Amino acid sequence: MIRIGLTGNIASGKSSVARRLAALGARVLDADQLAREVVAPGTPALEAIAARFGDEVLAADGSLNRGALRTRVFGHPDALAALNAIVHPDVGRLRATRAHTAEADGVRVLVDEIPLLFEAGLADQFDAIVFVDAPEPVRLARLMRDRGLPESDARAMMTSQADVAPKRARATWIVENDGSREALDSQVDAIWQAMLARFRP
Prior knowledge:
The chain is an alpha/beta fold. It has helices spanning 14-24, 31-38, 44-53, 66-73, 77-104, 136-147, 151-159, 164-170, 181-198; strands spanning 2-8, 27-30, 109-113, 128-133, 173-176. The protein has a domain at 2-26 and 108-198: 3-Layer(aba) Sandwich (Rossmann fold), CATH 3.40.50.300.
């Protein structure tokens, strides 16, 4: 089974690339979805988060109040590190379980969509890495449009992430997502063919 890491900075279009890869035949594991699963009500991770950050980060129904938690950790490296120490190990275990299932199912290409792939030190776990990029003004406009953020918040989220250049340098393939959906799909299709050729059994 081919293991592909899919990453890119915020608002670069990773999810669009993931959807195209899935349409071409890959199975996709979304790190954000895995993270939601490991902090579902009743999970040890959610209990640990409440113990560390207070019940104020819980919604009335007992689920995680992501907005409240975000305000606790954004701009606070120690708090973010504490949150990651709670969530990341459980996400890693769940990812390993899903990968094992994919292999047992005979999946040919498994794509792990992981926004912080390089930051988390996961690059070596994959056969190849696809990095999705777009110019800063494009990503800024997407954040403001799609998430309804004021410009100051959108810029803060962008600047909190690691620099793009080292990530591009380490990627196997780069998707430039600054044009139409057709142009994006064309790039992904070409990468898919290159991927199958590179890892031909």
